[in-house]
Amino acid sequence: FSLSCGFLDIDLTDLRKGGANITGFQLVNYTEQNVSRTIQQWMEFENKDAKIPKRRLKYTGALTYDGVKVMSTAFQNLRKQRIDISRRGNAGECLANPPAPWGQGIDIQRALQQVRIDGLTGHIQFNEKGRRTNFTVSVMELAPSGPKKVGYWNEDEKYVSTATFMRGSNDSSYGLQNRTYIVTTILESPYVMLKKNHDQLTGNDKYEGYIVELAAEIAKHVGYHYKLKVVSDGKYGARDPETKMWNGMVGELVYGKADVAVAPLTITLVREEVIDFSKPFMSLGISIMIKKPTKSKPGVFSFLDPLAYEIWMCIVFAYIGVSVVLFLVSRFSPYEWHAEDYEEGANPQTPTQPTGPSAGLQSGQSPGQQGQNQQNQEQTNEFGIFNSLWFSLGAFMQQGCDISPRSLSGRIVGGVWWFFTLIIISSYTANLAAFLTVERMVSPIESAEDLAKQTEIAYGTLDAGSTKEFFRRSKIAVFEKMWSYMKSADPSVFVKTTDEGVMRVRKSKGKYAYLLESTMNEYIEQRKPCDTMKVGGNLDSKGYGIATPKGSPLRNPVNLAVLKLNEQGLLDKLKNKWWYDKGECGSGGGDSKDKTSALSLSNVAGVFYILIGGLGLAMLVALVEFCYKSRTESQRMKVSTARAAASAAQTFQCSALDTGGATAPYTELQSYGLYSNNTVKI
Q1: What is one GO biological process annotated to this record (predicted)?
Q2: Could you give the CA distance from residue 548 to residue 183 in angstroms, rounded to a whole number?
């Protein structure tokens, strides 16, 4: 490294082929128009002493030239201000003790501090202490073809790399094998992690993870040696709006502290302006992480969930409608009516007496009585309203019934009802297993819109990261609303590290949502205690890239290595290895199991409740029927007994008063039946 500010003034011809890395500063920019014009005048100046050879103006001569120009400009400004700085009379003793200050010295100092000119060494101005400020120094590096400008340095931006290398040039591959490159990265699971025994290891062996293996594969394909270095401030890289300084891994690349950044570094426009990115090695987007809600317990009537409540209501109305239609068509159709024989006044439960002429003669009935019995034959219909309801219910429950329609119209009604119940029952059975065996989780947040329109659940991003920058620059109404909330939230919703954000989600009891890259969200969802989850889709689409300083010779080789690894499928293989093969929560995340969980009592509790309720209702109805029947029979027995007693009393009175009031011999006795008014002579 050369500390001289005239790198181009040094003869480095003998060092070009040695492979040494030489870097230095160059104060004079010979490509500037005013510099080249002044040098031309210098070379054309006719020196009286011909023995003095004409040489190129070095940086020391340029500084002398600028110093004289500064003094000249300062005195010209004093003359314009009509300030008298001439000495008159005794100039004073130079060796006076104590020294006597020059009275006009303060004016000259003030005039020098006010100078603002562009000299051969760049912009010239001074601060209050007389030090030069706001100047730029070029950073040069020796290449096989000669000195190359690789960047510049100033007080505001510090070192900025601006090296440009032509594709196919020998300079682009110069020194790749002759130096060890610094690869900056960040500790972030599963990208870069310290091994359990890292205290006993040194160098790159201390780390493991996706990025560690990716960096090794890229170095193998490019052919260079490297050393992993964790970024000191633990940040990815953002530009401070006040100081204009870059921090994190981007800052280390911009200011020359690292040669490559292999990390989950998002490719963005503002970063692309100061560093170069390779092709994305991983695609992702911003996602929402929330605490996994507790699984909702199945309701008592969860067996009704396979069908919507609207469908259940339609089934009830269809059941009633079919029953009514069946009742009506049975009434209207003459083929649904049939005759039923029984004697008038006879008990329907007693055996039916034989009919016909011979039967009438055998029973002692006259032909007139036989005609009267034929008139007593009634036309009956089995499908009353209650039987219609019972038939429809039996068909819906896939059960039989002791009655069935006789008419064609009734059978059409029954047929379409059977087809309807077949489809409904089949659809219900198909969905029942899924609803009873899967416990569903009710998430309060499903998308970014849900977050934006509520204030109960706080949400934030990583500070000094691309996610925060995305919301700050977004012009979409939803994201603008979210950014307005995040930047004004108190306490702050931004976190310093991803681990801090995840821990805040877990401890907030569902009151904090963390916005981060989807890849990290998916990884954390696979880690114990398996209490976080990703909700909704990605808010944007972006990628992770490998970063290098502007114009770095590593850019093209690294880019080709990434494309080759992608075509070989190694990138997907690495992701599966560190995300899912090493997952701790199963393939589905959370508390998922490999086998279907068995039904619990809570899944079918409603069926048991309906069974118990139905049995209780049946007992209650039976009790009501018994009480009602007992009361009816009791009242009828009282009426029949009273009538029998009155009739018997009247018969005995008539017999006693026969033959002139004398008591007649008892000739016959009438016996009255308990349930009938007919008498039988004995």
Answers
A1: cell surface receptor signaling pathway
A2: 10
* Spatial separation of the C-alpha atoms in residues 38 and 29, rounded to whole Å: 12
In which element (H, E) is residue 593 found? Answer: none
Which pLDDT band, with edges at 50, 70 and 90, does 369 fall under?
Answer: low
So what's the pLDDT on residue 440?
60
For residues 154 and 255, give the distance between their C-alpha atoms in angstroms, rounded to a whole number.
11
**CA 198 to CA 229: how far, in whole Å?**
14
| Dihedral angle of Cα 242, 248, 253, 255, to the nearest 10 degrees | 50
Tokens describing residue 616 = 């209780």
Average pLDDT over residues 134-141: 83
421 CB-near residues (< 8 Å, 6+ apart):
395, 396, 398
Residue 229 and residue 183 in contact, taking contact as beta carbons nearer than 8 Å: yes
Q: Report which DSSP code applies to 579.
A: I
Spatial distance between the Cα atoms of 634 and 636, rounded to a whole number of angstroms: 5
Do the first three CATH levels of 15-84+103-161 and 441-539 match, i.e. the same topology?
Answer: no
CB contact at 8 A, 512 and 485: no
pLDDT band of residue 678 (cuts 50, 70, 90) is: very low
The fold of the 441-539 domain, in CATH, is D-Maltodextrin-Binding Protein; domain 2 (3.40.190)
- The confidence band for 160, taking pLDDT boundaries of 50, 70 and 90, is confident
Run of H or E residues at 387: helix 385-396
Instruction: List C-alpha distances in Å: 391 to 323, 386, 396, 404.
Output: 8, 9, 9, 8
Mean pLDDT of 297-315: 81
Cis amide prior to 491 (ω within 30 degrees): yes
- In sequence order, the 6+-apart residues with CB closer than 8 A to the CB of 109 are 130
Q: How confident is the model at residue 612, as a pLDDT? A: 87
Q: Superfamily assignment of 15-84+103-161 in CATH? A: Response regulator (3.40.50.2300)
From the list 65, 79, 131, 88, the residue with the least C-alpha distance to 108 is: 79
Phi, psi of 427 (to 5 degrees): -65, -40
Per-residue pLDDT tens digits for 92-123? 666 767 776 666 778 888 888 888 888 888 88
Which residues neighbour 536 within 8 Å (Cβ) at sequence distance 6 or greater?
287, 288, 445, 446, 447, 448, 450
The per-residue pLDDT for range 211-256, each reduced to its tens digit, is: 999 999 999 998 888 999 999 888 898 888 887 788 899 988 988 8
**How is residue 229 written in tokens?**
């270095």
What's the rounded Cα separation, in Å, for the pair 244 and 467? 19
The partner residues of 160 in beta bridges, in order of sequence, read 152
pTM over 0.85: no
Which residue carries 């609303």 as its tokens? 481
Q: Where are the domains of the chain?
A: 15-84+103-161, 174-285+541-587, 441-539
Fold classified for 174-285+541-587: D-Maltodextrin-Binding Protein; domain 2 (3.40.190)
Dist. CA 24–CA 152, nearest whole Å: 11
Pairing state of beta strands 512-517 and 458-460? Answer: parallel
